[in-house]
Amino acid sequence: MPEYRQVYISEIKNYEAQRVCLKGWLYNKRSSGKLHFLQLRDGTGIIQAVMFKGDVSEEVFATADRIAQESSIEVYGIVKQDKRSPIGFEIGVENLKLVSEAEEYPITHKEHGVAFLLENRHLWLRSPRQHAILKIRHQIIKSIRDYLNNRGFLLIDSPIFTPAACEGTTTLFETGYFDEKAYLTQSGQLYNEAAAMAFGKVYCFGPTFRAEKSKTRRHLTEFWMVEPEMAYYDLNMNMDLAEDFVENIVQSVVQNNTRELEILERDVSKLENIKKPFPRITYTEAVELLKSKGKEVQWGEDFGGDEETVISESFDKPVMIHRYPAGCKAFYMKEDPKNPELALCVDVIGPEGYGEIIGGGQREDDLDVLLKKIKEHNLPQEAFEWYLDLRRYGSVPHSGFGLGIERTVGWLCGLHHVRETIPFPRMMERLRP
Ligand code: 4AD
Ligand code: MG
User: Fold this and answer.
1) Do residues 261 and 149 both lie within one domain?
2) Is residue 216 assigned to a domain?
3) Number of domains in the chain
4) Which of 187, 331, 364, 398 to mutate to test the pocket of ligand 1 (most atoms within 8 A of CB)?
């Protein structure tokens, strides 16, 4: 047998007219008497391998004829230019080795319902659309890490097992912890604040958990959040950072994921437009806007998904809504010194109805006010003594925010629901596979 160089489909352009070996899976197949057109995928791409009856042994030709979709195979042949192929090349097959013959594959090239596909998520990941989404997710995470690492932020991994609530007690996942109770983390923020007092600028990036009993297109029970936290940052500095951060993430996807955005049929002009400055309005102005559009809202209530969608329709960029009523926000938010009814917080609402991408704000740095807030929220003070220490020993103004990865992936990919934005989604009614 002649020598074949083992290569990936993504590097095929470097091997024109050469003998190569590609190892992968049979994605699709068409046959016409003396010819098999085999679509091979190897995780880096899909290529057509053309097999003429006269070029291979009878046994190999019969194997290619028989094997089902997703059988694992090694294809040996010569790289040829092919102007009609999306990657510009095809393989003239000289030999084929069957690695493992697949049973009849459940996900065919026909349309399938989402429930069925979610049940088969472990196989669904092999499809080009899921590849496009998860490659964009990868790029988003890479750009986030690069952005923060290049600006002097230190990565601080916050714990998953926690003794107390950060984002309200109604969505806590409780678990046994030897003789105690523990909760899965809802946010690394409180630990981040301790780290910011130690290192200045920090971030945590990990999975977070919320027992969300609502079945919406924006909620998972396990989702990933990146949370920067900065000492000596006020709300305005925090908003400036969030704005620059989001612009950077979006533009890095626009620059690096042309092919994936094309597969997803995403309107890229909408993403190219995501440049600073983003509109900034107060909560009170947002309430006025909603009323002017015929929505019934009471000042003092938090916005839900519907309100966020209506607000976003007035803007073609993310909109930063600041100074919500303190009553609808978490205990740690700093009171607005100009109006104690308001919290110095900000939510960033994505355009095109993708909902809240970022939540954050300035933190309460006054010991007495924070003690009062912990009482008002009926939280157990003893569980927060360590957090109160941060106000006892060199308290400073500080701020931060959390960006939800899945909501961001959903927005940039143009997906209706967050279930496809994470490899194995966890929702109220989905713990499997
Ligand atoms: O607004 P949230 O609850 O903010 C916090 O957790 C702060 N402690 C963050 C901080 O200031 N360090 O959540 C932040 C973001 C939301 O804007 C949203 O993008 C995402 O996390 N998020 C969810 N994503 C998917 N499923 C859920 N159930 C989510 N809940 C929040
Ligand atoms: Mg929020």
Assistant:
1) yes
2) yes
3) 2
4) 187
Q: What tens digit of pLDDT does each residue of 395-406 get? A: 999 999 999 999
- Contacts for 148-154 with beta carbons within 8 Å, 24 or more apart? 148/203, 148/226, 148/228, 151/201, 152/200, 152/201, 153/201, 153/202, 153/203, 153/228, 154/195, 154/199, 154/200, 154/201, 154/202, 154/203
Q: 305 alpha carbon to ligand 2 midpoint, in Å? A: 11
Residue 229 lies in a domain: yes
Dump pLDDT digits (tens) for 187-200. 999 999 999 999 99
| Closest ligand to residue 213's CA | 1
Say whether pLDDT at 164 is over 90: no
- In ligand 1, the atom with minimum distance to the C-alpha of 227 is 12
Please list every protein residue whose CB sits less than 6 Å from any atom of ligand 1: 166-167, 187, 189, 210, 212, 219-220, 223, 225, 227, 356-360, 400-402, 404, 406-407, 418
Closest CA to 270 of 417, 77, 413, 66: 413
Q: Which ligand is nearest to the CA of 171?
A: 1
Euclidean distance between CA atoms 201 and 232, whole angstroms? 9
- 425, part of any domain: no
| Ligand 1 atom, smallest distance to 358 CA | 17
CA angle 153/156/158 to nearest 5° reads 145
- In this prediction, residue 86 carries a pLDDT of 87
Would the pLDDT of 1 be above 80?
A: no
State residue 214's pLDDT score.
Answer: 80
Q: Environment class of residue 297 by beta-carbon count within 10 Å: exposed (0-12), middle (13-18) or buried (19+)?
A: middle
Q: 13 lies in which domain range? A: 5-100
pTM: 0.97
pLDDT digits (tens, 9 = 90+) for 260-313: 999 999 999 999 999 999 999 999 999 999 999 999 999 999 999 999 999 999
Same domain, 40 and 169: no
**144, 251: one domain:** yes
Instruction: For ligand 1, pick from 186, 205, 407, 418 the residue to mutate: most ligand atoms within 8 Å of CB.
Output: 407
What's the pLDDT band for 367 if we cut at 50, 70, 90? Answer: very high
Task: Pick the last residue of a domain from 65, 100, 135.
Answer: 100
Tell me how far the alpha carbon of residue 360 lies from the centroid of ligand 1, in angstroms. Answer: 9
